[in-house]
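CORE FACILITY INTAKE
Project code: CF-77B
Contact: R.S. (postdoc)
Sample description: multi-component assembly, two entities in total
Requested service: structural model of the whole complex
Turnaround: standard
Below are the sequence entries exactly as provided by the requester. Do not edit them.
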Amino acid sequence: MKTSEDKLNEALRDVLKRKFDDYEEQPNPAALDRIRTRVKPARPGRYWWFTGALVLLSVSGVLLSRYAGDYGTQPATPVKTVTHTIAESSPMRPDNGKLAEQPAKVSGAAAEYPAEALSLKPAEKKPDWKRKKVVENVFVNDLASKAATKVQRGHSGTVTGATVNRNSGLPPVIANRSGEAQGGSGTAKANGVAASGHVSEGMETAFAEEIAVHTDSAVNSALPLEELAAMPLKGTQIPLHLRSVVTPAYKPAKVIVTNPARIAWLFNASALHSYQILTVPSSAANDFQNFSFPSLFTARSLGYKFSGGVERNGLQLQLHFSSFRQTYSYEVANNNYLVKPDGNGQYHTVRQGDRIEENRKFSMLGIGVTRQIRWGHSPVSRFYAAFGAEYSHDFNSSQSLGWVSLGLGKQFAVSRSTAFSIGPYAEFSPVKVKGVANPFYYQPYRVGISAGLRFVRP
Amino acid sequence: MKFFLSKKYDSLTSLVKACQKQDPRAQTVFYERYKARMTGICRRYARTVAEADDIFQDAFVRIFNSINDLKEPEAADGWVKVTVIRTAINYYNRTTRQQELHSPLDSVEWQVESDDYVRMIDQMNVRDLLDLINELPDKYRTVINLHLIDGYTHTEIGEMLSMSDATARSQFMRGRNLLMKKLELKGIVHHENF
């Protein structure tokens, strides 16, 4: 049953609503301009930015691995390559076992280093990249393959004066036996330097393909050509059991391969503990008090981050996906006060508040550039330091964050093409992000451990 | 309320979605659509015209910055109004929290019949009535506006103002009585003028 108070209230409500329901006034004419200056600026291209970055990353990765990964890279140190070609059907002289004399072809590089530029057969013109590939196929830049290279070098040593890189410690293997071991020898002259080649009969099949020799210009320049010519040829027995492909079984060593000129593929995972710098703006409408944050190490604040990308010359371009949770609580002060006695017999007033629990999840996709520096002399590991910048977009709040990051650690060789890295990682956002249902601003920072794999062709 | 819509934004939904993309033209149309009505609301909740301007600007900045939170564009009318009212409440929470609410007129007994008050209000100019409401202390003015004009219950008012239902109810009663006394005085003056 309605009381007289209720009736009065209803009557008042009716008349006031009638008066004010359609009440309108014109605002200050300058209000719109002032509002515009305070509204967040538009960012229309943010979605295109992500799409573009993704496409750029994919395309650059594919292109670089195609053109730089297989054929495009040149050796960092100047290494001269001489192609020593012997035709499978080279005419042989069964009587004296010497090869028929062939015109020696001197290429441009050979003209500069005439002693190295000997060829028993006019060398087929091959593209540079193919020559390089031949070199790589024959000589593996690794200590573990030394046994294999020794055998190859033994054969190539049939040309006197051709100095073999990393081969100075090995005696030149010259087959001067006639009969069953020595099928023939060839002599070629180039720039007045006599060079004799003795090729064993049984090696025809072994020499049917090109054999490339690394030559070291420093060694050449240290040994005058006259001295080389004057050096007596020492015949050495060819070990028959090594004449064919009887190299010891090659087992790749776990040598860390940095190979900065090649494209490396990166995959990282990090477990990060999240913290934040919280700012309460002075213009906030309410008073906030009694903030309660999680303890220093708790699973509630643990997040993760996955990254994938490419690296070349120490510069990394990666896509990141990360997730973390922000949990804390605070009180919105109200107008209720409690008077409590303290230990000294005095009383103090405690303002009451309504507790608010914050539990916000960030799911962020970002792109970042990192510069990684490696150092160390161990063949199986390297130290590294990485400095980076990242731009991330949060799917939950549609806000964006910028990050700067620092990573330190060590890389270990897992195989010749794979390295495992692990170390501490930290990132900090210099950009403040606004709270969703409160007026606070946050600057998150994350500290944790990062582990990753790096794949690169040796 | 007459709403102006450009040909480009033929529905409220399309207008809100354009504002969510921070289209400046849509924001202008949106502003034009609500400015007069929301200024009227600000005038009711504010003590002075200058404060009403402040509240109005704060409210629209808040509206444009958080319009992405509006999941149902059809509900934009109500959302905008609630945002303006909450901004006004926050404004006075921030600036005049410590205001003394006990006015000398609180304790004055009023003798006029309720029908007379209604008739008086009905006959009054809106501006004059607005001036009367503006003269009320902030808390009373807010509660009177929320309960009598905007239709919030005492429970909702208690939640909005961080107070209990009973406190909200008692503040409303005190504010209403104070308004009636002011009306009574205004009426007496009005009658004396004639």
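Facility notes:
- Chain A touches chain B at residues 4-5, 7-9, 11-28, 31-32, 34-36, 38-44, 283-286, 332, 334-335, 354, 398 (CB under 8 Å).
- The longest strand of chain A covers residues 347-375.
Invoice: internal transfer
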